[in-house]
Amino acid sequence: MRKPEPLVEILSTGRYLPDQIVTNDDLSKRMDTSDEWIHSRTGIRQRHIAPDGVNTADLGAGAARRAMEKAGIDPGEVDVIVVCTSTPDRWMPATACDVQALLGCSNAFAFDVMAACSGFMYGLSVAEGYLASGRAEIVLVIAAEKMSSILNWNDRSTCVLFGDGAGAALLRRANGSGRGILSAHLRSDGNLAHLLCRPAGGAIEPISKRVLEEARHLVHMEGREVFKNAVRSMAEACDQALQQAGMTADDIDLLVPHQANVRIIEATAKYAGVPMEKVFVNVDRYGNMSSASVPVALDEALEQKRIGPGSHVLTVAFGAGLTWGAMVLRW
Fold first, then answer.
1. Quick check: 164 and 205 in contact, CB under 8 A?
2. What is the pairing mode between strands 312-319 and 323-330?
3. Which CATH architecture has domain 181-330?
4. Cβ neighbours of residue 239 closer than 8 Å, sequence gap 6 or more
5. 16-30 pLDDT tens trace
6. Can you give the pLDDT at residue 3?
């Protein structure tokens, strides 16, 4: 199969993590858990937690500034801002508008994408469409999450899993460089939405005293079912993305998966045919940052020189919706 020519490329990446670190031992002082219990089941040792007053938009703007500085892009050069988040600061307006104001990108239009942990890849695909159609020159894709704000801190089965943070990427048309997005495979299944969701707090069941008392406005997850669907769906997405790119797992230099659980990462890598030495893992230090996991991992992998010019990178994620997807990138 003839390999596709990329339409857009990633100019730069950036990440931003709040300073506060909460370890498993810290959590064991406030609930019935332990470092051994959490780490043996998830691979997580610690996570970053944003303090009061540091919002999703602040995290996103921090990551975006770093990406813009690396690429030498001024705020006025950005045409589109896409913010991927499951934790908007407000239901209205879009958090992207707040990020636009913080960055001073006065020439851009901004909007949110909500696809949970798969959000960054959905956002990249949206950016690809605007750039390929000629309707934009520079697109800023940001994945920012303050997961700590939507967790039930009395539920040890979920609250120990998540952390806060943001990652960003600047994209432009590839212009024959050979770098960029080679393929994308995105999917969703709303029939399984109940497995991972916030049951109340929206238009169907608005916030009320009862909703707050029952904590139904916070994250609810059926862990075993999510695990099974995550492994199966991410393995299938990897296969499809590789096929579209005219590649096999042997052609991949680095797999950058969503950082939800080390067991899911290991199972996905096994089914995708990628050895663990070619898999980037940082879930031990950050936990699950939802949509921010993949861009933060990409930025770290670049910094650590595990990705360089000509590298083929496979990214994959799975999240609430249920949503999932994979992409093959050439750096």
1. no
2. antiparallel
3. 3-Layer(aba) Sandwich (3.40)
4. 272
5. 999 999 999 999 999
6. 67
Per annotation, catalytic residue among 55, 229, 261, 288: 288
What SS3 state is found at 264?
A: helix
Whole-number Å distance between alpha carbons of 180 and 8:
5
pLDDT digits (tens, 9 = 90+) for 154-164: 998 899 999 99
What global pTM score does this model have?
A: 0.96
Active-site position among 105, 217, 258, 261: 258
* Count of residues in the chain: 331
The amino acid occupying position 321 is G
Catalytic site includes residue 152: no
Query: Which of 117, 159, 197, 238 is flagged as catalytic?
Result: 117
Handedness of CA 59, 169, 116, 250 (dihedral sign): negative
What pLDDT does 5 receive?
85
Q: Is 258 in contact with 293 (CB distance < 8 Å)?
A: yes
Domain boundaries, the chain: 8-178, 181-330
* Alpha-carbon gap, residue 298 to 280, rounded angstroms: 9
Out of 3.40.47.10, 3.30.230.10, 3.20.20.70, 3.30.460.20, the CATH code matching 8-178 is 3.40.47.10
What are the backbone angles phi and psi of residue 183, rounded to the nearest 5°? -160, 160
Q: Which residue carries 């995708």 as its tokens?
A: 272
DSSP helix/strand/coil, 162: strand
Instruction: Please list the ranges in the chain whose pLDDT falls under 50.
Output: 1
Q: Give the pLDDT confidence score for residue 115 in this predicted structure.
A: 97
Annotated active-site residue 191? The verdict is no
Strand order in the sheet with 180-188: 180-188, 323-330, 312-319, 254-257
Is 288 annotated in the active site?
A: yes
What is the per-residue pLDDT for 136?
97
Give dist(CA 49, CA 19) in Å, integer: 8
| Domain 8-178 matches domain 181-330 at the CATH topology level | yes
The pLDDT of residue 235 is 93
Helix (H) or strand (E) holding 187: strand 180-188
